[in-house]
From TrEMBL:
This is STAS domain-containing protein. It comes from Octadecabacter antarcticus 307.
Length: 62
């Protein structure tokens, strides 16, 4: 039996940056759309996407 980590997104914000931390199995189009949505927000901070916790990118839906 294989344990799979459920997809999880954690967003933290400081005066310098907004960081999205993604974990679990996530579809690539979802990540791409999420980053694109954040890029359109009127922010004066850098947006970082931390994908180090992603266990699998499901590209079958791409």
């Amino acid at each position: 039996m294989t344990d799979e980590i459920q997809p999880d997104i954690n967003i933290t914000s400081t005066n310098a940056a907004v960081t999205m931390t993604l974990r679990g199995a996530i579809t690539l189009p979802y990540v791409t759309q999420l980053v694109a949505d954040f890029a359109t927000l009127p922010m004066d901070r850098t947006v970082h996407a931390d994908l180090s916790g992603v266990t699998r990118f499901d590209t079958s839906a791409a």
